[in-house]
Amino acid sequence: MSEENIVEIENLEKSYGHGINALKVLKNISLSIKGGETISIVGPSGAGKSTLLNMMGCLDEFQTGKLSILGNNISYLTVEELSGFRNLHIGFIFQAHNLMPEFTALENVMIPLLIRRRKKKEARQIALTTIEKFNLLDRQNHKPNELSGGECQRIAVARAIVGNPDIILADEPTGNLDSHNSKQLIDILLKTGKKNNTTIIIVTHDMEIAGMSERKITIVDGNIINDVPL
Hints:
By secondary structure, the protein is of the alpha/beta class. The chain has a single domain, classed as P-loop containing nucleotide triphosphate hydrolases (Rossmann fold). It is about 35% helix and about 30% strand. The protein is built from 7 helices and 10 strands. It has a 6-stranded mixed β-sheet with strand order 6-7-8-3-9-10, with helices on both faces. Helix 3 (about 105-115) runs parallel beside helix 5. The chain is globular and about 55 Å long.
């Protein structure tokens, strides 16, 4: 784990709507995360967990406060700069795998590398090596509708880690998996993070998965009410 903070959040607030009808979903959030940390974010539905994850993923705007990632004040980046920043530094895993249906499993995993303008042959080899970690080489040429839900989610994780991002953000990544596949997926994710010093932040309702992280943050009603090492 690095001693330097890779994410710094100061007094961040997020609301939907305006005026008296505004719904405040994050309230005065302050948080520091070091490089290589594995963190779980837990709390009841509607507490603001996914919203906070979206903030750290530069996917949504906030009204007040400061968010810095890798020393970059996110508020100062243009839409184009944010897009490039996400591709280089952040990997995403969602409960719905969000694979592109027209592409094969292999092509889906290659996409982040091709966006970075890696040569197609090189991107293919890196993607194959990544898919092999999930025992899915025999499914590489299948499209998402030809894969099981568990296979799709493993391909989604492969896509997230293929470019060795600095941060991986996972929003209920095992919500559609059975317990065996859930543990296997999280185990691969955490081992990859340790090997590459990747910061991994997982939103989950599964306390067993939360217990596999190094630090657990609890959010209730838009507030961090607990932040403890495990």
